[in-house]
Amino acid sequence: MDVGSVEIGCDTCDFDDKLFSPVIVSAVKNCGKLCYPLSCSSSLTVKGTKYSKGAFVVINCADSQPVFGKILLCLLDRNSIGALVVEECKCERNGYLGLFVINSDHETQRLKCVLSDELYDYYPLHAYNIIGLPTLH
Q: What does CATH list as the number for 6-91+105-123?
């Protein structure tokens, strides 16, 4: 694999506005940096780093704290630009445990489409349970 390459997962299909929820379609259209047609998949590999549905990425920083997004969909445009549709998550830092506890409040669901090159940190994280709470370290 070329170091600068971008590869979509093997379960790829064409991104069709009629197949996805209006919230996902709106997030993709609001990105404005992707050139149609788009391919979509549950995974995307960028420069050797694999992003998969269900993993978390840092999409922003607010008040000196990372803002996490849970990957819902991976995209690749006609110019081989990779993007991720993520659900922005509310997290609280637990200093005692040294990790972030994910708030699973889906009532205020905010979706964003973020280019893989514009992530605050390129490395995806996987949540795990500590004392019954979904957490990120």
A: 2.30.30
